[in-house]
């Protein structure tokens, strides 16, 4: 297993668990299940233990399912594959550990024998169906491919004309995106990279994972001149120190030694921005 990928995934999960929205959604779903009491829990458990049961089970199955889906997508597809295929494969594979988690969870709480093969197959089908649906929702929230320069260059005066006095340029405002970062990481924006439904914001003071779409993050870069170079990457113009081709593909070299790919649909925008 790639230790870098595992470390990155664990960081994503840590950022997710620090999100109030995540816990709000988890508590809301657990409350609904606690009131409804599906799968016999209404008869087996009192209201408060029933809510605690669904909260613990939802957290455990989400954790193992998310970790499995993330590692499966990276190992099987990398950055390739259509979204529907990726979602179905990742969700189905994640159904295996989720099913095992549910069986072990119920056996430790209620006791009794292990389920029969038919019952386990039915449970696996239900768990896989739910995880595939969640995988589809995550994929639908991703930013569609495209490129747009976020801050066009100012037009030059006509050749031969004397430059007219210009008022002092206004002081640039801090990008709203930086307010989402820890104080120690609020530096000069370098680039943004999408990782599933997270955006990793890179500044000259470090990097931070934020739970949001890349399109929303780009809208919050403010006056920072930049361009989207790939469906998963946006770069600040000042952060690019060069470009190179590798195996016929164009890459941009950044000031922190990172090298980001340029997709074919974004090459024109990259050239227009003077980066290649």
Automatic annotation (TrEMBL):
Gene3D superfamilies: LytTr DNA-binding domain
Lineage of origin: Bacteria, Pseudomonadati, Pseudomonadota, Alphaproteobacteria, Hyphomicrobiales
Biological source species: Mesorhizobium huakuii
Regions of compositional bias (Low complexity) in chain numbering: 150-163
Signal peptide from the UniProt entry: none
Compositional bias segments (type: Pro residues): 164-175
InterPro entries membership: LytTR_DNA-bd_dom
Name of the protein described by the UniProt record: LytTR family DNA-binding domain-containing protein
A Pfam family: LytTR
């Amino acid at each position: 297993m790639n230790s870098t990928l595992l470390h990155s995934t664990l960081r994503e999960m840590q950022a997710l668990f620090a999100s109030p929205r995540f816990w709000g959604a988890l508590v809301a779903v657990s409350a609904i299940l606690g009131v409804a009491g599906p799968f016999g829990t209404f008869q087996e458990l009192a209201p408060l233990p029933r809510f605690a049961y669904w909260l613990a089970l939802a957290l455990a199955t989400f954790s193992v399912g998310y970790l499995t889906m993330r590692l499966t997508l990276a190992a099987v597809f990398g950055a390739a594959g259509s979204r529907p295929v990726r979602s179905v494969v990742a969700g189905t594979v994640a159904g295996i550990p989720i099913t095992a988690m549910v069986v072990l969870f119920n056996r430790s709480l209620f006791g009794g024998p292990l389920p029969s093969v038919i019952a386990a197959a039915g449970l696996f089908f239900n768990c896989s169906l739910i995880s595939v649906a969640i995988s589809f929702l995550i994929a639908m929230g991703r930013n569609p491919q495209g490129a747009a320069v976020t801050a066009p260059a100012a037009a030059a005066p006509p050749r031969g004309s004397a430059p007219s006095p210009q008022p002092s340029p206004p002081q640039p405002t801090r990008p709203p995106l930086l307010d989402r970062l820890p104080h120690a990481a609020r530096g000069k924006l370098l680039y943004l990279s999408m990782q599933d439904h997270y955006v990793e914001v890179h500044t000259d003071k470090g990097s931070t994972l934020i739970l949001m779409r890349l399109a929303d993050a780009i809208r919050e870069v403010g006056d920072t001149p930049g361009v989207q170079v790939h469906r998963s990457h946006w770069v600040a113009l000042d952060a690019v120190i060069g470009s190179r081709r590798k195996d016929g593909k164009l890459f941009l070299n950044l000031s922190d030694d990172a090298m980001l790919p340029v997709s074919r649909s974004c090459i024109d925008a990259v050239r227009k921005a003077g980066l290649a």
